[in-house]
Amino acid sequence: MNIKIFLMISLFFFSKPSTEETVFWGPTGHRTTGKIAEKHLTNKAKRKIDKLLKGQSLAFVATFGDEIKSDKKYNEFYSWHYVNMDLDEKYANAEKNPKGDLVTGIQKCIQVLKDENSAEEDKVFYLKMLVHLVGDLHQPLHIGQREDKGGNGIQVQWFGNGTNLHTVWDSKMIEEWNMSYIELANNAEDLSKKEIKAIEKGTLVDWVDEVHETTKEVYNSVKVGENLKYRYSYDYFGTVRTQLQKGGIRLAKILNDIF
Length: 259
Prior knowledge:
- By secondary structure, the protein is mainly alpha-helical.
- The protein has one domain (about 20-259): Orthogonal Bundle (P1 Nuclease), CATH 1.10.575.
- It is built from twelve helices and three strands.
- The chain has helices at about 5-15, 25-40, 45-55, 60, 65, 100-115, 120-135, 165-175, 180-185, 195-200, 205-220, 230-259, and strands at about 155-160, 160-165, 225-230.
- The chain has a three-stranded mixed sheet.
- A hairpin with a 2-residue loop joins β1 and β2 (about 160-165).
- α2 crosses α7 (about 120-135) and α7 packs antiparallel against α12.
- It is globular, with a radius of gyration of 19 Å.
- The termini are far apart.
- GO terms for molecular function: endonuclease activity; hydrolase activity, acting on ester bonds; metal ion binding; nucleic acid binding.
- Keywords: Disulfide bond, Endonuclease, Glycoprotein, Hydrolase, Metal-binding, Nuclease.
């Protein structure tokens, strides 16, 4: 290939503005949650999951929900990745999306997996979706405001490059930390059984309302156009790690209950 053409192509792909709308933890975040969940599964749940996934790990399938977005036949599942709520609302009182949301999506996954009459193909699909959606649930901006699309409409900078608040929380802080999902999972906080039980406690809606409290903090953490750098990561990456760990523990709790 002509070197000039190669350089032009490279410039196109690697200099795209980072203001594209995203609505998911990045792959590393999702895989971290999946890996943490594996540590908390019962042996019975491990065997049944292994059989359904034919040896694939929860970390491996954790990105499935985003991968299928490129196929229009799965458009009906798009709204399952988030909940739109005003900052002063609880889920019970919030206006519901008629197309479904994170809560109804997770409930559907659980329903299919618990149904003995569900086809194996359906169980595999909804298991993969469940792994992904429980990860999404614990990214605070997936329970964000409708008017700014969960922080996608709040423009900021990350080390001088244009992006948005949602993307900072999805992937920018995780990428800046420069650890693999295995390293992040292996370095999760060492929790006591009592602390794990406290995280597992509550209903799905309780978890949504809890994460939404963190959502409020995230919205108040920046000003539009602000250049976020090391200090922001120092202040908030601990929250990212906590949310990834809670997501893994709660995913395992759901799967243990199902299987």
